[in-house]
Amino acid sequence: MSDLKNDRLLRALLREPVDVTPVWVMRQAGRYLPEYRAKRKRAGDFMALCQNPQAACEVTIQPLDRFDLDAAILFSDILTIPDAMGLGLYFEEGEGPRFRKPVRSAKDIEELTPVNTTSDLPYVLDAIRLIRSELNGRVPLIGFSGSPWTLATYMIEGGSSKDFARIKTMAYSNPALLSVLLEKLAVSVTDYLNAQIMAGAQAVQIFDTWGGVLSGKAYREFSLKYMARIVAGLNTQAEGRTVPVILFTKGGGGWLEAIAATGCQAIGLDWCQDIGEARARVGDRVALQGNMDPAVLRASTTAIEAEVATILQSYGQGAGHVFNLGHGVTPDIDPQQVAAFVDAVHSMSVNYH
Q1: Catalytic residue list contains 40
Q2: Which structural domain range is residue 168 located in?
């Protein structure tokens, strides 16, 4: 890690000593930044930004030029894999992602071919190489993917969903068919993350955004099992060091012990879980990442500092904590509040290390 000027994030994810608690923010490059909105307007649309390595690099680094963050995260989207599978991803303004060809039948699933990242998603790898070059060791770069379950929800529902009726119907009435899709996605995600690591990602996160909509039994069968398979298939040694793997299941607080048993290095927590209780449950098996409610950023600087203090105190002394929000920063947030948040984490966490 000698090439890194700031390796706090990687140290914390491996539960090694740090001087202060590292902090990064999910969706830290995005619509709350005026410079991002300007760049997106010039690009035409969201996917045009993602598929242009130079633009993706610029957007990835924008928040680092504003805030004292301890990591960059690749600017991309979790739905690049289904898009590469030919489902026709597009974004409706105010509606979120949509697919022109949702996956509904056994024939649809049968026709899907697992993604070969090098040939199917070269723009992602080009962006990673460019970002690493531009960062020049400033902070580590995080790569990521959606989980098989989360990708499948979008593919089967055709976009965002409130009740997940189609995929849950398949899960309970034809679990064997759903498992064929999840298996193809697990193979694709493993290939995708390994390619990201080879291109220069120094940590990777799997976003299981919709795992929390499942029952405990269904979560283990349709989400966790495939994430564990991915973790086992990753080549996590690169550039002479370990590439930590973070699993983030939104709504996954009930299953922390099972998530820790996958072999991941860290668990991302949403804001519904007390981080001190989570630490007591998982012990020193994994690091913990999180977990302030993003809505706190709408409040005063004093309120933000109070919440940061509460979470730091709850986690307690020692390494193994990466501070983050419990989900992504929302478009309405004033960037100055993010700055106050990042500064509060660094200044207040000194006493815990």
Answers
A1: yes
A2: 8-352
What is the Cα 255 distance to its own chain's centre?
A: 18
Domain count, the chain: 1
CB atoms within 10 A of CB 48: 12
Tens digit of each residue's pLDDT (9 = 90 or more) over 151-204: 999 999 999 999 999 999 999 999 999 999 999 999 999 999 999 999 999 999
Active site residue 77: yes
Please pick, among 8, 11, 40, 279, the residue that the annotation labels catalytic: 40
- CB of 351 closer than 8 Å to CB of 318: no
Residue at 3 is within a domain: no
Which of 15, 27, 98, 279 is labelled catalytic?
A: 27
Query: Of 77, 274, 293, 343, which is the active-site residue?
Result: 77
Does residue 154 have an active-site annotation? yes
Task: Tell me whether residue 214 is in a domain.
Answer: yes
The radius of gyration of the chain from alpha carbons, rounded to an integer in Å, stands at 19
List, in sequence order, every residue forming a beta bridge with 159; answer none if it has no partner. 98
- Please state, in angstroms and as integers, the Cα–Cα distance from residue 240 to each residue in 2, 136, 237, following that order: 10, 17, 7
Query: Is residue 289 assigned to a domain?
Result: yes
Active-site position among 31, 66, 138, 229: 31
126 catalytic per annotation: no
Q: Burial letters for 301-316: b for 16+ Cβ neighbours within 10 Å, e otherwise?
A: eeebbebbeebbeebe
- Read off the pTM: 0.97
CA–CA distance, 26 with 271 (Å, rounded to integer) = 13
**Residue 98 is a catalytic residue:** no
Q: Identify residue 214 by its one-letter amino acid code.
A: L
Contact status, residue 27 vs residue 328, Cβ threshold 8 Å? yes
**Looking at 70, 98, 120, 154, which residue is catalytic?**
154
Residues 342 and 305 sit within 8 Å (Cβ to Cβ):
no
DSSP 170-227: HHHH-HHHHHHHHHHHHHHHHHHHHHHHHHT-SEEEEEETTGGGS-HHHHIIIIIHHH
**Is 167 domain-assigned?**
yes
> For residue range 118-158, what is the model confidence (pLDDT) as tens digits?
999 999 999 999 999 999 999 999 999 999 999 999 999 99
